Amino acid sequence: MAETTAASGQGAECPGPMVVPAPGAGEPGPEAGVPTLLAVLRRLDSGPRGLTEAQAEERLAHFGENTVPAAHEAPWPRLFVRSLRDPFTAVLGCLGLVSAAVSAWGTASVILLLAVVSCVLRATGEHRADRSMSGLRELVATTATVQRRADEGAAPGTREIPVADLVPGDVVRLGPGDLVPADVRLLRATGLTVHQAALTGESAPVGKHADDLTDGRRAGDPAAGTGDGVFEQPQFCFQGSSVASGSATAVVMATGVRTRFAAARGGTVGCAASAFDRSVHGISWILIRFMLLTPPLVLIANAALRDRGLETLPFAVAVAVGLTPEMLPVLVTTCLARGAALLARGHGVIVKRLPALHDIGAMDVLCVDKTGTLTQDRPVVDRALGPDGRDDPEVLNWAAVNAWWTLQLADLPSPDALDEAILDAAGEDDLMAYDGVAAVPFDPLRRLATAVVRTPGRLGRHTLVVKGDVQAVLERCVLDEDERIRLSALAACQAEAGLRVLAVATAERPARTRDYTPADERGLGFLGLVTLRDALAPTAAEALAVFAARGVTVKVLTGDHPGTAARACRDLGIPVAGDQVLTAGRVDGLSDAELAALAGRTTVFARCTPEHKARITRALQSGGHTVGFLGDGVNDLPALRAADVGIAPREAADVARETADVVLAEKDLTAIAHAVTAGRRASGNIATYLRITLSSNLGNVIAMLCAGLLLPFLPMLPAQVLAQNLCFDAAQLAFAYDRPSSSVLRRPTVLRPGDLLRFITGFGVLNATADLATFGVLGFVLHGLGTATEPAFHSGWLTENLLTQALVMLLLRLGRTGAEGRRPGPVARAAAALAVIGLLLPPSPLGPPLGLTALPALYYLLLMAVLVLYAAGLLVARACRGRREATW
């Protein structure tokens, strides 16, 4: 029977650091290579007979119990207090205090309530994430079969003990279904295969053996045989894995916090701030600086030039309130929650942390594994080649005969992935033409499987059908050296193309009744090669095309062979040049700066360990990328936490699923593509709100400062400032329900504080220019008609402010052009309502209580001219900015 497929999650790291010395010795350092069994036993001061009870007690006192360390969960009140230090919460708090200072108690109460709710939600989410780490304990065994001696002279005996009592140097026994209780080195193994999905993410069991030879190749698998991955070393098994078949005796090398399992858990603690967090922090501090700067400027200017001091304090505070977007937390939450709800209903994508929806929209690099994402968890037959390199279906037929009768006669529970692919590709009728006699099942050391059958029409003869690793088969064939070299080169060429290669050979023997053994695998006649490739995920190509259109670059971080990963990428249409493949061994030789420079232009990272995945993710982030990571195993936890947005499928390991920010119903890239679309729509609406609101508010503040210095009275009463701001903020909530232009979906929408500051400065000055022009119009009209100056000025400016803000809502929507959005949407309706309020509020019954009055018709005519010029200026400025930047 053919072997199992290679595990992923491996890299160029030996298990040396895992080995724990005997009590009293120093901690071990990294090994240059895989330690031999003798070296391991010497280091552990142990032997095949196991430890004595006295030695075990001494080591238990020295090393402690073999348990996964408990998570240090911060109490909820501490998390709540810590969330108060967030700059975004500080903005809300400042707004509440400012509103209270001008006696706007209702506004102050609402804003402070928003701040408290924000802190409660954040603290609750973090507390839930901390508790989810306890899911790791479900993967740890509770008891183990250990071999110990009463004293030095006693014979060893076996008994069940709690896993917590295991110590380095103990000899344990493993059987089918057992959980591996610690990190161990095999002493003896018979047909041992191990599930390492919790550590590597790969579903197929991995063959293990106790031999000191590092050549652990599995038949025909180009991903095997390098021996440079810690989980790939066939002599070692790790806590968190389980025995699929066979049995073994092993010596414990590491327990407790020293295991790979505990190391992966420890790497999940303390994640970096996400892209949304960094953006919100930057924007929040911009707002805080403006808020702190504005009132002193107003007070100083009025005191110096108009001899007005503290009496202008309410106006100065109102100006500061007018600068800030009070509805920002409401709109952000509404946009993200609405997008998350649509994703959950339509595509089964659960966004566990709302800001992650922005992060996935801002994502420009997505890191994925190969198996289960780009490819399915199974191979398929690519070709069957004769010795001359041409297609030969007879080779596939004999390979299927081997797979079928090995499965039937060796009493195996099910075929492995390679045999199943061969049986799927072969004709069932051809298999039934042969009668099985005997089978010698696959062995990791021989790297062969042999079936003995009776061929129709050949009485008294048996046919041996041998299938397995190319070199192992060629060694047993009757070939001259030149032919052997030629066939080896043919197989190597197929492997370099990313294919898995099996060799098939046969031999005729006289019929006999005694058992067949591996010694009969000689004098074979070479038939040909069977090549297999990974079955492509059915929706992967479609999703990758969407990612390319959305400006998302896909990076493959895998534990597999680089050729296999590159082949899958090319089959899916991802171009992979020779210099775009990087192995973990080369990553280890790069500094962080060198890796950051190289990671951006690398497509495939092969032979990756968990540490490599996390380091590559951070390197991409340091290069200015917003990184998403799709993972499903414990080995992916460090990278899931390091990424800006961690993504896991529903069937992932519990702890990986709980750690992720986004959970998919299935491990399907199309679901991520839908999430990217939803994230960009939400982010586009948030960015539009911030740009329009802050630029308009800044323009009004600049105009208020100028008017306060030019006029003998306040340009706007505090109540009028707050009423205007309330109307504008209420209209801006329409952006939560807007549908941005398709151009917004073409590239990541990132809330960059620097870009936002440049935008609001430029368009704020343009808005202030329109306000100053309105001052001139008001001065001309009021002076000519002799109208009461102060109420009329307040009314005229408030009307102009609401009308210009309505124009801005229509003309500065992110990604919109004049040809788009002809059907009135929520933003157009809200802008129209804002304009109506601006025109009707001064002459309405609500006007006098606010200090407003009706205006002459001449003002509206002149105001229309100002608005036309302002709209033209907006369009010109928008076109100029669009040519400079491609992020509309």
Question: What does this entry look like structurally?
Answer:
The protein is of the alpha/beta class. It folds into five domains: 16-68 and 140-259, Calcium-transporting ATPase, cytoplasmic transduction domain A (Distorted Sandwich); 76-137; 286-348 and 674-884, Calcium-transporting ATPase, transmembrane domain, CATH 1.20.1110; 376-536, Calcium-transporting ATPase, cytoplasmic domain N (3-Layer(aba) Sandwich); 538-664, Rossmann fold (3-Layer(aba) Sandwich). It is built from 29 helices and 22 strands. The strands form three sheets. Strands 1, 2, 3, 4, 5, 6, 7 and 8 form an eight-stranded mixed sheet that branches. An eight-stranded mixed sheet has the order 9-22-21-20-10-17-19-18, with helices on both faces. α3 crosses α5, α4 (87-101) runs parallel beside α8 (275-305) and α11 (355-362) packs across α24. The radius of gyration is 36 Å and the shape is elongated. The two termini are 59 Å apart.
